[in-house]
Amino acid sequence: xxxxxxxxxxxxxxxxxxxxxxxxxxxxxxxxxxxxxxxxxxxxxxxxxxxxxxxxxxxxxxxxxxxxxxxxxxxxxxxxxxxxxxxxxxxxxxxxxxxxxxxxxxxxxxxxxxxxxxxxxxxxxxxxxxxxxxxxxxxxxxxxxxxxxxxxxx
Length: 154
Fold this sequence. Notes:
The protein is an all-alpha fold. The protein is 78% helix and 0% strand. It is extended and about 65 Å long. The relative contact order is 0.13. The model has no long low-confidence stretch (mean pLDDT 93).
């Protein structure tokens, strides 16, 4: 089978670039994904805290969460956003915190802003990496996890 002349000339440089990209360590990818997750939810939580009366008003009028009255929902959402953002950035109980944030994002998507899926799917992308592969070796989970739960099985 003959290669196309263009492929012959571009093959080696493309393979080098792909090799460099493949060499990016997962811990760096995870750290970026954790920073992205933290930024989204930390910003939202601190925005809520910056004007609590406006936050309560939004939960009363716009953020209709099923089964939870507006004021407890506001406290719950703000607490989840800030505490899970910190946990994710620190890499502590990371998968659990991301799981909670994914649940919260699902509630927002289904009940509050169903048209915001283009934004939420971006959040899903970086949170799913963390959920599926973990926080990486630059995390508190990597530091203390083996001491608490033993080394990972190969």
